[in-house]
């Protein structure tokens, strides 16, 4: 796993040469978060990466509704947190302004999309699957909530049942993906997802305009 993390770091450096690489600590204990960033290190809760083949099965209550991952998912989680480290260093004001639903969604979703481009995995497949099953209604609900600046029922979900935890970040993932795909300069778009101009990312993704036209 260490070699896989180092390989992922190398791919990240190719995409973002200005990156810094703080130590990664894998801890075991009763932690409520799967991973956290601190100014000098990344903290990973190792017990969340001991899942088996059924780890993404929403019918299995033991998977903590998408939080449990396989050991092979650990490098992707490290890259997700590494992206947050770069965001905090490049635009600390944006990182502390994540109380609004839109900002929070793009903050989490951009890091997850960055990890996806580097390692080919998302940190929350359960939430991706849930959005795919309920796409039309949920996108309009998300759009309405962002216009009202309402975080209700989005930021914190229960560990069990539906919707899965972290659903807001999946909207941010899709926004970041659309923003990246429409950009002709992919390296510049990658950097923009680290710089975190939330309104620019949302507008240039095209999703904001689509939702305003679709959900009226």
Write a brief caption for the model.
This protein has 216 residues and is mainly α. It has ten helices and three strands.
Which descriptors would you attach to this protein?
single chain, 216 residues, mainly alpha, 10 helices
Cα shape: globular
> How large is the count of helical segments?
10
What is the makeup of the main sheet?
3 strands, mixed
Helix content: 55-70%
Low-confidence stretches: 57-62
Q: How is this structure best described in words?
A:
A hairpin with a 2-residue loop joins strand 2 (about 35-40) and strand 3 (about 40-45). The protein has helices at about 1-15, 75-90, 90-95, 100-120, 125-135, 135-150, 165-180, 185-195, 200-205, 205-215, and strands spanning about 25, 35-40, 40-45. It is mainly alpha-helical and about 220 residues long.
What does the secondary structure layout of this molecule look like, with pairings?
Blueprint: H1 2-15, E1 24-27, E2 35-38, E3 41-45, H2 74-90, H3 92-95, H4 101-119, H5 125-133, H6 135-148, H7 167-182, H8 186-195, H9 198-205, H10 207-214
Helix pairs in contact: 1-2, 2-4, 4-7, 4-9, 7-8, 7-9
């Amino acid at each position: 796993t260490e070699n896989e993390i180092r390989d992922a770091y190398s791919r990240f450096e190719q995409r973002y040469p200005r990156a810094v690489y703080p130590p990664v600590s894998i801890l075991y204990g009763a932690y409520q978060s799967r991973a956290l960033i601190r100014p000098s290190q990344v903290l990973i809760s190792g017990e969340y990466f001991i899942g088996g083949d059924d780890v993404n099965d929403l019918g299995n209550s033991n998977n903590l509704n998408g939080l449990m991952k396989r050991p092979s998912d650990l490098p992707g989680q490290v890259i997700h947190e590494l992206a947050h480290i770069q965001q905090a260093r490049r635009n600390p004001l944006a990182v502390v302004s994540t109380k609004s639903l839109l900002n929070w969604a793009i903050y989490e979703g951009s890091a997850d999309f960055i990890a996806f481009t580097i390692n080919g995995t998302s940190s929350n497949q359960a939430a991706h699957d849930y959005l795919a099953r309920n796409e039309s209604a949920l996108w309009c609900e998300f759009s309405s909530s962002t216009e009202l600046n309402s975080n209700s029922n989005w930021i914190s979900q229960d560990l069990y049942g539906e919707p899965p935890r972290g659903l807001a970040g999946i909207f941010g993932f899709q926004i970041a993906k659309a923003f990246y795909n429409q950009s002709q300069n992919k390296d510049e778009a990658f950097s923009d997802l680290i710089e975190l101009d939330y309104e620019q990312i949302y507008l240039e993704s095209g999703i904001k305009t689509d939702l305003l036209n679709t959900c009226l």
